[in-house]
Design brief:
By secondary structure, the protein is mainly α. The chain has 7 helices and 2 strands. The longest helix has 16 residues. This is peroxidase.
């Protein structure tokens, strides 16, 4: 799907780094930290800490527990340490392929991450919406304008 939009593995890996800021609702990470989606590769102390934040449907946790309000490359260091909050995040690291190399590079070089993220965001911004989809400019991302 990404390649049809002129986005490659490097773009996808860099764009995933947006998860260095923001929060996820418990329902999106509970399977990973409690067990049904949990693999033995998750950091056990991280899983335990995230279980404590997942108390009921309103529980939230930061994607990046070290620097949750700073746009930096800590997200990639978390993946290497098996502390990816979402299963979809953690799948970027650990299969020995191209994504592993990119995660390792971004974890060590924040400037390379920032540069690639900016390039990928420009490419993503040039992707047109699907035909017939209503388009709106939001002043706040969460609520729709209509």
């Amino acid at each position: 799907m990404f390649s049809r939009l002129n986005l490659d593995a490097r773009d996808m890996t860099a764009l995933s780094g947006a998860h260095t800021i923001g929060m996820a609702n418990c329902m999106h990470y509970s399977d990973r930290v409690y067990g049904t989606d949990r693999d033995e590769e998750i950091n056990p102390s991280f899983a335990q800490t995230m279980q404590q934040t997942c108390q009921g449907p309103s529980g939230k946790a930061p994607f990046d527990v070290q620097t949750p309000m700073r746009f930096d490359n800590a997200y990639y260091r978390n993946l290497i340490a098996r502390r990816g909050l979402l299963t979809s995040d953690q799948t970027l690291y650990g299969d020995g392929g191209l994504h592993d190399n990119l995660v390792e590079m971004y974890s060590a070089d924040g400037e390379a991450f920032a540069r690639d993220f900016a390039k990928a965001m420009v490419k993503m911004g040039n992707v047109p919406p699907p035909m017939g989809m209503p388009v709106e400019v939001r002043l706040k991302c969460s609520p729709a304008n209509y």
